[in-house]
Amino acid sequence: MMMEYMKKQDERMEILIQKLEGNSRSQSPSNQDPDKDKIDEFRKNAKTKLEGKHTIILNGINYLEWKSSILADAHLIQAKDILTKEETMSSATASLDIELWNRKNELLYTRIFQSLNATVRDSLGPLDETYMAATLWKNLAQRYAISHAEERLQTTKKMRDLRLKNNDFHTYLANFRDLKAKLVSLEENWTESTYHDLFILGLGDWQQEFIRTKLDEFYATKQGPIQNLNLNELMDQLATRATITANNRSSTANSATNSRPSTASSNDERHCHYCEKSGHIIRYCWFKNPNLANTEWKEHNKERIEALKEKNKNREKDKNKESDKEENLLASQPGRGFFAGVSSDIDELMKHQPSYG
To answer: Interhelix angle for 231-256 vs 192-202, to 10°?
Structure first.
């Protein structure tokens, strides 16, 4: 019975994918259309971005986590409005913009449907022949979303319990900003003083000497009106100190192990190989994941973001070419069978280890 059920689900998924691909081919511009290359490029880039992200599966009780993940995916392909504004057709008039909207809708629909477990998929009943991502999104919200009141309460609890752990300030900062943005989106009217105090309390004993000097400034008003610290300025100062501390720790470690191969420093657990800076991990690199940063920072660094994106794309291409060369060389050597199970690229092996690289 279970095998038949799984087979039925696989067939259902295959039918959906085939229909979506059929829609895509029927709606694609002709070979003579000058916009075809732009549309193909968008689709290729969007698929690359989505395929590289972990998918959270909606099981019926993790709606908030799943919703956040899908919205992040939509943001990556510039299609968030389709869901948040419940768009079922493009408002554009230019043919290129309309076609791009169709591609975004198609990718979102597929992404959402593939992120549902079997029970959730069955709860939807017959498939919607229009394949509108917004319609599917709305139906799932009606079945599994919690009330805004409960969502706010859960988010408030997460903010209350947020603490800096393992001296990882950058992760703490990213989580704090994410929770604050969520509370604001839920129209939670907290004062800046509340965020100010929660942020400082969440730091615990980290950088306690520096924090104590800042608190002395904060307490200096005594019985007069309270003057909060500039929270954004404090965040920047702490981020700088976190980076300096990590660099010093890295230098000390390198001095103690300078007899090791040079790859030791390049694989330092606090070194980001995307932006080539120390003090944070790739997962929380703002250049690689600009959605973690605020609007002002993204605007100020937009050229650097694009430059690093292009640089890392080219680096990956060069790396693949080099790997192919080494693979061909190994194939021509005696004892090929022995080397077949060994990666020719040590960096490829290292990046799958439990480290920050």
So the answer is: 20
The whole-angstrom separation of Cα 263 and Cα 346 is: 10
Question: At 116, is the secondary structure helix, strand, or coil?
Answer: strand
Residues 6+ apart with CB under 8 A from 329: none
How far apart (Å, rounded) are the C-alpha atoms in residues 2 and 67? 29
**Structure tokens of 194?**
């509340």
Cα Rg of the chain, angstroms? 25
With a CB cutoff of 8 Å and minimum separation 6, the contacts of 44 are none
At 3 the pLDDT is 56
Counting beta carbons within 10 angstroms of the beta carbon of residue 238, is it exposed (0 to 12), middle (13 to 18) or buried (19 or more)?
buried
Runs of H (alpha helix) within the chain: 2-27, 36-51, 63-76, 80-84, 95-114, 118-123, 133-144, 148-161, 169-185, 192-202, 208-219, 231-256, 263-266, 295-300, 302-331, 336-339, 346-350
User: pLDDT at position 193, please?
Assistant: 93
The mean pLDDT value of the chain amounts to 78
Could you read off the pLDDT of 324-351 as tens digits, one per residue? 666 665 555 554 444 444 444 444 444 4
Among 6-15, 115-124, 247-256, 295-304, the range with the most confident prediction by mean pLDDT is 115-124
**pLDDT per position as a tens digit, 42-70:** 888 888 888 877 789 999 888 988 998 89
- How far apart CA 310 and CA 295 sit, in angstroms, is 21
Q: How far apart are CA 57 and CA 114, in angstroms?
A: 8
Chain-centre distance of CA 83, in angstroms? Answer: 18
Place of tokens 């039925």: 8
Give the separation between CA 81 and CA 138, rounded to whole angstroms: 13
| pLDDT above 50 for 352 | no
